[in-house]
Structures are given as C-alpha cells and as structure tokens.
Amino acid sequence: MAEKSNNTQQIRLEIIFDERNSVMKLYRNITSKMYYVIIGLILVQFVLLISRQVGMQPVWVLIEYLQLVAFMPIYNFRLFPYLYEAFKPALVSHLIIFDETPYLPQLDKQFFNKNYAFYKLSVGRLAQAAVGIALVFSAVVIANLVVFLITKCIRNSDPTTGSGKIKLWADKTLI
Length: 175
Description:
By secondary structure, this protein is an all-alpha fold. It has helices at residues 22-51, 57-70, 81-87, 114-118, 123-153, 162-174. The chain has a domain at 18-94. The chain starts with 21 loop residues before the first helix and ends with a helix.
C-alpha cells in the first residue's frame, strides 16, 4: 500500500512595517492626533461628571474598555500593520503617552515577545505605565486622606460660616 504524500510547504511570511508607505504614514498621523482626542474625551467627561455631581462610573467604564482594546494586539495572533496603529491610542488608558521612556532609554529596546515588538510596546513603556498608575493611585489616596482629615479636624461648626461650609462639603464628598 502506498502512502499519500503532501507536497505542500509551510512558508512563514513576516509582517512588514513599511514606514515609507503613504497609507502607513496616514495611520501614523491619525494615531498621533487620536492620543489627544482620547485624552480630551476622558478629561471632558471627568469635568462634566464632577460639575453635575454624579458618579464617575462612565469615566471608569470608558477607561476599562480602552484598556481591553489596548492589549488586543499583543494576544497570540497577527494583525495587519495598520491595525497596530489603530489600537495604539487606547494605550492612553494605561498612561502610556510618550514614545520613549524617560530616564530608562535602554528598556525601549527590550520586548517580551514579537507581538509586543510589532505593537512597539517595550518594557520601558510598560514601566512608564506602572509609574503613572502608581502616581495616580497615590494622588487618589492623598486626596481621600485630605478630605477625611477635614471631616475629622473641623468639629461641630455653624454651617453658615466658612469652616462649616467646608465641613459640609467634605462630609458630602466623603460619602
């Protein structure tokens, strides 16, 4: 009995990021502008929700979805080069704003695997995200501590005076 043979070969084609291509340049320009659009969208939504004195859930949901979208390109599948550029503005949700890592330029040449390299998401940019998130977390904790201390330091005071109004504001904010 003769075995059937398969004469096909598997050829692996690498992704080509042609920086001179006009379409790639267009996507690069759109990406650089979308960073500012997304930052503006988050800030405007934050300010509007604070001014209307409602919860921050819409801002957190937006940031959560941006975080989910931001890491889609590093899963174990390959995308068209243009799509890597389309997903990059979502990295704002992780506070990855700069292309080069300040103070740690040697980490900009290290990547976890090829998918991170295609996405240009270096170890340095992830370190930048970790520092940014730690700073925002610290600011939130400090702001909550200040409001808590205001409520504890200002004892029973007349609500019509300056300190009474601050106490009412702090009590309302702390809730």
